[in-house]
């Protein structure tokens, strides 16, 4: 917690504090998704699959590029922790910190889910959110945050001295391990900071600590995403339920979440402006054996049949335009 030492205040302290704030990452020139054509495409969605996420558990599911996936509240208010990976390279995944720096602490319709370096591209766009009405409450809280990392057993052990095995971190490890046939040691480092679906959070006004409060989500509410590349998604139904009191225990009332995947045959998607991986090229040090002007090669047909983990193990390079 930030401490304030009042014994050594400089004479110009007020002037130093009064300098204007500036936005770190102005989005004036940020390429924006085509929300008009996404809305048109949503007019004729066809459901192709669904997955139930049990309470205090997690599942992974595949989403094809150009498809929509929707996370639904069904039986009662429930928070979900979402991880997203590129299906062809699990080391390219949702980058919560950069997404937060670009779009803010809480996400909604039109915001994009940005991936980790060096790709840094949109993995998905939020195409619809029934909780758009919430905005900001008097506590400074809002929904769908990219602040909290996920509940995990290590922090639970540190703060409470308990061994709890159904934190979202652990749930996501098990889900990814089962989905991609990985052992836990390889799956755990691939689990990353989450998008807290339906969670209502903010920072306290006095100590600026991360807080949570009862989620405003109700059965029938949903948040929907448009996949901008082939994805593997992992969703945990948080053991905190609606996160009105605590998490990392079996105390809260929890409910399942429903994931639905949709296709659209609307021609509005034919010219959707998908962004490629970042075209930035590293400045190679003098004497490097790598040709700094040579583009990274594509994976051969043989290699493209390997599992995502096999690609990681063999340390293949990926096409910038994948």
List the helices and strands and how they pair.
Blueprint lengths: L12 H5 L17 H7 L3 E9 L4 E6 L4 E6 L6 E7 L2 E5 L2 H8 L8 E3 L7 E8 L12 E4 L7 H8 L7 H13 L3 H4 L7 E9 L6 E4 L8 E6 L3 E7 L19 E8 L36 H4 L3 H7 L8
Antiparallel strand pairs: 1-13, 2-12, 3-11, 3-13, 4-5, 4-9, 4-12, 6-7, 7-11, 8-9, 9-10
Shape: globular
Q: Could you tell me the strand content as a percent range? A: 25-35%
Number of domains: 2
Ends distance: 43 Å
What's the total helix number? 8
> How many strands appear in the DSSP assignment?
13
Mean pLDDT: 91
Low-pLDDT stretches? 295-304, 314-318
Structural class: alpha+beta
What is the ordering of alpha helices and beta strands? HHEEEEEHEEEHHHEEEEEHH
How many whole angstroms does the radius of gyration measure?
21 Å
| Largest beta-sheet characterization | 7 strands, antiparallel
Roughly how much helix do the residues carry, as a percent range? Answer: 10-25%
Q: Can you summarize this structure?
A:
With 322 residues, this protein is α+β, with helices and mostly antiparallel strands.
Give an account of the 3D structure.
- The chain contains eight helices and 13 strands.
- Strands 2, 4, 5, 8, 9, 10 and 12 form a seven-stranded antiparallel beta sheet that branches. Strands 1-13-3-11-7-6 form a six-stranded antiparallel beta sheet.
- It has helices at residues 13-17, 35-41, 96-103, 153-160, 168-180, 184-187, 301-304, 308-314; strands at residues 45-53, 58-63, 68-73, 80-86, 89-93, 112-114, 122-129, 142-145, 195-203, 210-213, 222-227, 231-237, 257-264.
- By secondary structure, it is α+β, with helices and mostly antiparallel strands.
- The chain has two domains: 44-266, no CATH class; 283-322, no CATH class.
- The termini are far apart.
């Amino acid at each position: 917690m930030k401490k304030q030492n009042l014994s050594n205040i400089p004479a110009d302290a007020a002037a130093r504090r009064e300098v204007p704030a500036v936005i770190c990452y102005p989005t004036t020139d940020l390429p924006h998704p085509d929300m008009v054509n996404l809305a048109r495409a949503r007019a004729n969605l066809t459901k192709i699959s669904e997955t139930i996420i049990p309470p205090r558990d997690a599942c992974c599911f595949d989403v094809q590029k150009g498809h929509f996936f929707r996370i639904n509240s069904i039986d009662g208010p429930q928070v979900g922790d979402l991880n997203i990976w590129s299906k062809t390279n699990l080391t390219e995944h949702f980058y919560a910190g950069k997404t937060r720096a670009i779009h803010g602490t809480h996400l909604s319709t039109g915001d994009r889910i940005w991936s980790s370096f060096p790709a840094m591209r949109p993995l998905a766009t939020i195409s619809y959110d029934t909780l758009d009405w919430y905005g900001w409450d008097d506590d400074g809280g809002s929904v769908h945050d990219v602040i909290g990392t996920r509940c995990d057993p290590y922090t639970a052990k540190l703060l409470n001295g308990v061994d709890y095995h159904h934190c979202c971190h652990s749930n996501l490890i098990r889900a990814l391990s089962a989905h991609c046939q990985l052992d836990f040691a390889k799956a755990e480092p691939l689990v990353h900071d989450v998008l807290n679906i339906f969670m209502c959070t903010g920072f306290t006004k006095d100590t600026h600590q991360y807080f949570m409060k009862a989620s405003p989500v109700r059965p029938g509410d949903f948040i929907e995403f448009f996949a901008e590349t082939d994805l593997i998604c992992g969703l945990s139904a948080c053991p905190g339920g609606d996160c009105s009191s605590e998490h990392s225990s079996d105390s809260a009332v929890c409910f399942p979440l429903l994931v639905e995947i949709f296709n659209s045959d609307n021609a509005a998607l034919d010219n959707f402006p998908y962004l490629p991986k970042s075209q930035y090229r590293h400045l190679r040090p003098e004497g490097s054996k790598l040709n700094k002007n040579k583009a990274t090669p594509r994976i051969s047909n043989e290699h493209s049949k390997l599992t995502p983990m096999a690609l990681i193990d063999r340390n293949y390079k990926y096409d910038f335009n994948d």
